[in-house]
């Protein structure tokens, strides 16, 4: 149709270049829509809220605010911050949101006020230095009170009627520590309480005079670090959780505009309470909470819902059998004045309590998990999960899009793309999983870890099949599995590529390939299982012949290669690196075919190509996900839902979706527009098979190098396609990997292996 098109035939691929601007065939770049988002920042104190009208969950994730509707299974983000959000609050009416951020040293920390319905920013100020520690709305949405971090230490009141800050003052005295939390009163819009390190103060806002009056709460001889605070509905008492594991109850005696507390009275402590243990004698019958009290909620009837730093959740009430005055002579500083009614436990430190219904609570932990707790039936249910740190690798099984696996800090997680939930979690504490792959038959999950061990697990029960210790000296960083499942290739941080032969009872090292001088970032095997390409941060990609254990081609560029992938037919490879470029290479002679610029300011961290080779995706540190047309080199789709650098991605075998993961632990499943699903090219591809050769290879008769100590076969009939049927809905199986078995060295000569004879007379 075009005049003078340039058509070239290169190794089974036909390219048609139209003179002019590249990408003219795709005039419109579509917006990619997420199907599901797994992500939450549970480390933000009181960082989870529920809208009083819509019921949506509001939370912080990176530098964005997420609004999730679990009933409709939808999620959206509000962007505006330049760095990680450190605090978040929602007004009682649900009209406004307020958030603060933490910034780099020497920069200002922003406080932004949002309109919830319009999802737009309506006001902001940068009066805090470096970070904003806590933020809250006062009653009737009159003011926004924010507290600065360690480098700031000030209290700023923002007037919601004038939309401007009205006063700023230091939060604490010189003899006390920093304020850590702020809590408003329920009935008076001009009073609030701040608490922190040896810090507990009651404040009064004088809006017309633009002043703040403050009064210190009398603590007698007690000194505490307060992490959380709650005030009852009548504004009579306040309960504070401390780092020593007890609950401090104070009487407020407010409110007076000029004197803060009522004239002739003051705010003071009533006592520091712990739970009573009736099995112990008096003086030792008081129990404190481990790792401090991190979250509180005041219920009706004087009951308290308490969340501890070790994950304990207790429903307690004040004792009525003993008057409070009787504890004045108690030998300890903490009085056993609380009675435990119910108790349960979750993983991680409690960071937020959100009351969804009268008897239903959402509980958020610092492990980025949300639980649902019914305080009437006391039934605990895990609702939402995500990684706690970066998602290093994402992979799908061969020809099966129902599930996918991710690797991260201390765990491998298997997710359901249909149910949009986590199915299986395999834990290896204190170590990170660098890469994970499914075998093509779906009978095992192979993974490499930064402790230098290769581990394989069953896909349903998560049981350890075998482990290869000391696979790499400085830890493993990349993995590729052949289609037969009997051959795996691993890359290490020291720059070596090692080929392993896998048998049911033994795992043997076939060969070591040395050419790189930096960590291996990715490995990929062609569909014939004859070649593997290794990408390295030293600026080179090497194509290896894994049958002869020799190097075939080397391609170099002025970049740190982050990922390399074969075209489905194996005639080309595509790479990406830290310079933001995407490069097509020829496998036959290592020639450069095409060079695309994906980002001018940031690196491209990962890429994945679909089964037909028509489209591929790239992710980078610019927070964007891009869908490319392979032939034209044009961007046909862009997604911008991530809140931090995106470092991993994977295309589903069905080509209708793909998954991306970022450094904040979030996962997003994206829908591919129907026009970009791809079609087989060529339609009737010829299947090739390797001719039988009599040349000697190093794949046979290899002496056993590794004795994993487990010698376990895969459970009969266990396959990845049966994981969905084996896992009930809304259920999660968590498996802890046992330590790798070691040989018993008791009574064995320590010099037997190296052949050293320590005694000269026995030499």
Q: Would you kindly provide a brief summary of this structure?
A:
The protein is an all-beta fold and 763 residues long. It contains one helix and 61 strands. Strands 21, 22, 23, 26, 27, 28, 29, 30 and 31 form a nine-stranded mixed β-sheet that branches. Strands 36, 37, 38, 39, 40, 41 and 61 form a seven-stranded mixed β-sheet that branches. The protein has a five-stranded mixed β-sheet with strand order 3-57-56-55-54, with no helix packed on it.
What key phrases describe this protein's structure?
763 residues, mainly beta, Methylamine Dehydrogenase, Chain H, 9-stranded mixed beta sheet, 7-stranded mixed beta sheet, 1 helix, 61 strands, 1% helix, 49% strand, disordered C terminus, WD_repeat_EMAP, cytoplasm, Cilia- and flagella-associated protein 52, WD40_repeat_CS
What class, by secondary structure content? mainly beta
> Uncertain runs with pLDDT below 50, 5 residues or more?
1-26, 683-715, 743-747, 750-763
- Continuous helix count: 1
Head-to-tail CA distance between termini: 87 Å
Overall geometric form: elongated
- The percent range for strand residues is over 45%
The count of strands amounts to 61
Question: Overall mean pLDDT score?
Answer: 85
Computed over alpha carbons, the radius of gyration is 30 Å
Fourth CATH level, the homologous superfamily of the domain at 391-676: YVTN repeat-like/Quinoprotein amine dehydrogenase
Enter the CATH topology name of the domain at 391-676: Methylamine Dehydrogenase, Chain H
- Using the 3D structure, state the CATH architecture of the domain at 391-676: 7 Propeller
| CATH class category name of the domain at 391-676 | Mainly Beta
Helical amount among residues, as a percent range? Answer: under 10%
Largest sheet: 9 strands, mixed
């Amino acid at each position: 149709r075009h005049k003078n098109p340039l058509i070239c035939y290169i190794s089974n691929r036909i390219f048609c270049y139209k003179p002019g601007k590249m990408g003219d065939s795709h005039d419109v770049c579509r917006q990619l829509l997420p199907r599901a988002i797994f992500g939450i920042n549970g480390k933000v104190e009181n960082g989870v809220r529920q809208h009083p009208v819509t019921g949506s969950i509001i939370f912080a994730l990176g530098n964005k605010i997420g609004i999730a509707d679990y009933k409709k299974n939808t999620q959206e983000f509000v962007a505006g911050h330049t760095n990680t959000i450190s605090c978040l609050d929602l007004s009682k009416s649900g009209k406004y949101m307020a958030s603060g951020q933490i910034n780099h040293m020497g920069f200002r920390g922003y406080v932004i006020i949002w309109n919830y319905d319009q999802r737009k920013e309506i006001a902001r100020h940068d009066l805090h230095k470096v970070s904003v520690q806590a933020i809250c709305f006062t009653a009737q949405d009159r003011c926004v009170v924010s507290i600065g971090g360690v480098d700031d230490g000030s209290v700023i009141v923002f007037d919601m009627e004038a939309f401007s800050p009205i006063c700023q003052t230091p939060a604490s005295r010189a003899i006390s520590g920093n304020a850590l939390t702020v809590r408003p009163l329920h009935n008076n819009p001009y009073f609030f309480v701040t608490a922190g390190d040896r810090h507990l103060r009651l404040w009064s806002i004088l809006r017309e005079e633009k002043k703040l009056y403050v009064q210190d709460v009398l603590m007698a001889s007690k000194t505490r670090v307060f992490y959380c605070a709650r005030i009852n509905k009548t504004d009579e008492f306040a309960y504070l959780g401390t780092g020593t594991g007890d609950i401090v109850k104070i009487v407020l005696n407010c409110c007076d505009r000029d004197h803060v507390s009522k004239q002739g009275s003051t705010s003071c402590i009533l006592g520091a309470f712990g739970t009573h243990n009736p099995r112990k004698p008096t003086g030792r019958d008081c129990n404190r909470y481990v790792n401090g009290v991190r979250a509180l909620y005041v219920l009706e009837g004087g009951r308290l819902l308490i969340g501890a730093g070790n994950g304990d959740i207790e429903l307690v009430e004040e004792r009525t059998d003993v008057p409070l005055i009787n504890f004045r002579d108690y030998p300890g500083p903490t009085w056993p004045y609380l009675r435990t009614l119910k108790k349960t436990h979750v993983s991680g430190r409690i960071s937020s309590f959100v009351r969804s219904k009268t008897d239903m609570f959402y509980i958020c932990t610092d492990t980025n998990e949300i639980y649902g707790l019914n305080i009437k039936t006391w039934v605990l249910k895990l609702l939402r999960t995500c990684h706690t740190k970066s998602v290093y690798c994402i992979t799908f099984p061969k020809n099966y899009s129902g599930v996918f696996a991710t690797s991260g800090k201390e765990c491998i997680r298997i997710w359901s793309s249909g149910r949009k939930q986590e199915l299986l979690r395999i834990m290896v504490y204190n170590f990170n999983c660098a890469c994970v792959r499914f075998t093509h038959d779906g009978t095992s999950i192979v993974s490499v870890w930064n402790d230098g061990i290769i581990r394989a697990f069953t896909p349903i029960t998560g049981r350890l099949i075998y482990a290869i210790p000391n696979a790499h000296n400085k830890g493993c960083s990349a993995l590729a599995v052949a289609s037969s499942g009997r051959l795996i290739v691993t890359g290490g941080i020291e720059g070596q590529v090692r080929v392993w032969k896998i048998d049911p009872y033994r795992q043997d090292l076939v060969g070591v390939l040395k050419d790189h001088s930096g960590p291996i970032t990715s490995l990929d095997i062609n569909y014939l299982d004859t070649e593997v390409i290794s990408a390295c941060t030293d600026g080179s990609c090497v194509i290896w012949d894994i049958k002869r254990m020799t190097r075939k081609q080397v391609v170099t560029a002025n970049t740190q290669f982050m990922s390399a992938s074969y075209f489905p037919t194996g005639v080309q490879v595509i790479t990406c690196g830290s310079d933001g470029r995407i490069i097509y290479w020829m496998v036959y002679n290592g020639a450069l075919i095409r060079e695309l610029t994906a980002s001018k300011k940031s690196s491209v961290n990962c890429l994945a190509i679909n089964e037909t080779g028509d489209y591929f995706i790239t992710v980078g540190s610019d927070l964007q996900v891009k869908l490319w047309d392979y032939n034209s080199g044009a961007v046909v789709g862009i997604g911008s839902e991530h809140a931090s650098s995106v470092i991993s991605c994977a295309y589903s075998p069905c080509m209708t979706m793909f998954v991306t993961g970022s450094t904040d632990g979030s996962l997003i499943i994206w829908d591919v527009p129907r026009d970009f699903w791809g079609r087989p090219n060529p339609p009737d591809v010829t299947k090739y098979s390797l001719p039988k050769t009599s040349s000697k290879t190093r794949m046979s008769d290899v002496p056993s190098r590794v004795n994993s100590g487990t010698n376990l076969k895969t459970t009969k009939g266990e396959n990845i396609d049966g994981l969905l049927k084996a896992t009930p809905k809304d259920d999660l199986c968590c498996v802890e990997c046992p330590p790798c078995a070691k040989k018993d060295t008791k009574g064995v000569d320590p010099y037997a292996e190296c052949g050293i004879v320590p005694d000269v007379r026995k030499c």
